[in-house]
Amino acid sequence: MNATHYLDTVWVDGRLLRYTALPFQARLRITFGGIGTRPEPLGSVIRLDTDEPRLCVSAPLHVEWAGTNSEAIIAEAVRIWAEVRRDCNG
Description:
The protein is α+β, with helices and mostly antiparallel strands and 90 residues long. The protein is built from two helices and five strands.
């Protein structure tokens, strides 16, 4: 059984990123690729329940690209997280 919950896809610097939630965790998993494609891991935006979210990259080949685009990746995660929390809180 897959315990992840797909939330959104967003284009960042020419690459389609897929944002996925994990139950009971204040983080979003980030993969390259959209629906119908095999996702390639990038990492996670963690600490979304704080004022200092952070990108943790788990794909060594994408560290430089992720570092260059970390502000946009984190901003999208914060936006998506806020929407999820608003929807959950009614």
